[in-house]
Each structure stands twice: as C-alpha cells, then as structure tokens.
Specification:
Elements (H helix, E strand, L loop, with lengths): L1 E10 L2 E17 L2 E16 L6 E16 L3
Antiparallel strand pairs: 1-2, 2-3, 3-4
C-alpha cells in the first residue's frame, strides 16, 4: 500500500507546504495475524518575507514503521 498527500499555499508574503508520503507491505501469516514494515516521510516548509516578521521553517522527518497485527475471528 502506498499513499501521498501534498498541500502548498502562498498568500501575500507567506509561502508554505506540507507533505506526507507513506509506503508499506504486509504479509498475512495466519488468517488473523500479519506482520509488515513501512516507511513514512513528512515534510513541512514555511517562509515569511515580511520586513516586520521575517522567518523560515523547514522540517523533514523520516520514520521506519514495523507492524504486527492480530485480529479476532
């Protein structure tokens, strides 16, 4: 399974974006038990070009995600 979400905006002197990307796979070992692994990337960005309130923010997060799931029948 894979998914991607992205948002970008710009108003006057403000510009920003947010993004999340995720991918994973799962193996169903038994009918009610699965194991898997995934990876998530999240990115944020904000730039303000104003003489009274200048600023810049950038963040990149990368997270591996193991999973172990059990379901009752």
């Amino acid at each position: 399974m894979a998914r991607a979400q992205y948002l970008h905006g710009s108003v006057n002197n403000f510009e920003g974006s947010m993004a999340e990307y995720h991918g994973d796979f799962q193996y169903r070992w038994k009918p009610n038990f699965s194991v898997g692994a995934g990876y998530t990337i999240m990115r944020s960005f904000l730039a303000v070009n104003d003489a009274h309130f200048p600023g810049f923010f950038k963040q990149n997060v990368r997270v591996p995600r193991p999973s172990l799931k059990s379901a009752s029948s």
